[in-house]
Amino acid sequence: MDTKRWNIKNNETFHNQSIHEAAELITQGETVAFPTETVYGLGADATNESAVAKIFKAKGRPQDNPLIAHVATVEQLKRLVDNLPAYAEKLMKEFSPGPLTYVLPSNGMCADNVTAGLSTIGVRIPDHPIAQELLKLADVPVAAPSANLSGKPSPTTANHVWDDLNGRIAGLLDGGPTGVGLESTVIDCTQDIPIILRPGGITKEQLEDVVGPVMIDPGLANTKERPMSPGMKYKHYSPEVPLWLIEGAPEKLQSVIDREKQNGNRIGVLASRACAEQIQADEIISLGENIDEIAANLYEALRKFKQGDVDLIICEAFPEDGIGQAVMNRLRKASDI
Ligand code: TXA
Ligand code: MG
């Protein structure tokens, strides 16, 4: 299949012919990748089972991993769910549009393969002008996982999507690099107390400021317990070469690097700027000065290390405050130790 690629300059969405064409493809049952404020998504009409099946096929995604339905407004979101608890409405007022996905009881409006047979559905209102315009024009809920091949790091630029999915999807809206750089926080809103199923763009602290205590799925920390969200059990976000996550000062990282170099390995390093400046290795990528920059640059950096260039990636472990929790969640999933 030929993948049509449209370039949207400066987020010019008003009467934009390209976004019209993309929305038309979606209503015709095709797949289109588009930017959101977190990562690029691969969208299809969530009410059309055969359209949704094309997403699973293009990504090579396991059938038991449910998709998030994207809508433009809270009104549209409410048409997909039953029993919205008061705390979820509060969260929506504060964080939607934005990088927060609500898991709520499904009312069956979306196709069965969106929810992978679960009685709940994940719903999100993305905060990106191109995504918003696409959703408004398509006027259907749009199922959209991250637009990468399953297992690879999520795409934060249109080129990442192109590398993974060119020829496998109908269209790609190029809106430049995404902002947050990590996926949305997924929060289960079916219990009395909300539970974070996947840490992400909205932090636990931000959520608790609005609704009081929030739990974290114990399965995220404890490898013996199965995560509550199907997607969290898979190895994910994997670079082409093994990644080791090392806690401690730069000297600690350097000692591991030196040992592995003596073993004949070429070493790549991922670290904050402060740490990167103190390290010597074959290739070093500085992820940025603070945890927000580190989050925004992480997936691009993971994709940069190619087989043949380095044999092993050594990555600094970061403090788990704020979005650091999501950064470390992704790095643990990407890492081999
Ligand atoms: O930021 C994001 O969330 C991006 C952009 C494109 O919106 N999307 C994204 O989708 O990351 P995906 O499919 O890569 O990840 C969705 C996660 C998976 O871990 C999935 O298992 C979980 O959300 N999920 C979806 N529906 C669920 C449900 N009903 N119950 C529990 N977990 C659910
Ligand atoms: Mg994904």
Short overview:
With 337 residues, this protein is α/β, with parallel strands linked by helices. The protein contains eleven helices and 15 strands. Helix 1 (17-27) crosses helix 5.
Helix-strand blueprint:
Blueprint: E1 4-7, H1 17-27, E2 32-34, E3 41-45, H2 49-59, E4 68-70, H3 74-78, H4 86-95, E5 100-105, E6 120-124, H5 129-138, E7 142-143, H6 158-165, E8 171-174, E9 185-188, E10 195-198, H7 204-211, E11 215-216, E12 243-246, H8 250-262, E13 267-271, H9 273-276, E14 283-286, H10 291-304, E15 312-316, H11 324-334
Parallel strand pairs: 1-8, 2-8, 4-6, 5-9, 10-11, 12-15, 13-14, 13-15
Antiparallel strand pairs: 2-3, 3-7, 4-7, 5-6, 9-10
Helix pairs in contact: 1-5
The structure holds threonylcarbamoyladenylate and magnesium ion.
Magnesium ion (MG) binds at residues 145-146, 154.
Describe the structure in your own words.
The chain has two domains: 4-221, DHBP synthase (Alpha-Beta Complex); 243-334, 3-Layer(aba) Sandwich (Rossmann fold), CATH 3.40.50.11030. The protein is built from eleven helices and 15 strands. α9 links the parallel β13 and β14 (283-286). With 337 residues, the protein is an alpha/beta fold. The model has no long low-confidence stretch (mean pLDDT 95). The radius of gyration is 20 Å and the shape is globular. The chain has an eleven-stranded mixed β-sheet with strand order 1-8-2-3-7-4-6-5-9-10-11, with helices on both faces. A four-stranded parallel β-sheet has the order 12-15-13-14, with helices on both faces. Bound molecules: threonylcarbamoyladenylate and magnesium ion. Residues 36, 38-39, 41, 65-68, 99, 101, 103, 115, 118, 120-122, 124, 126, 144-146, 183-184, 186, 197-198, 229-232 line the site of threonylcarbamoyladenylate.
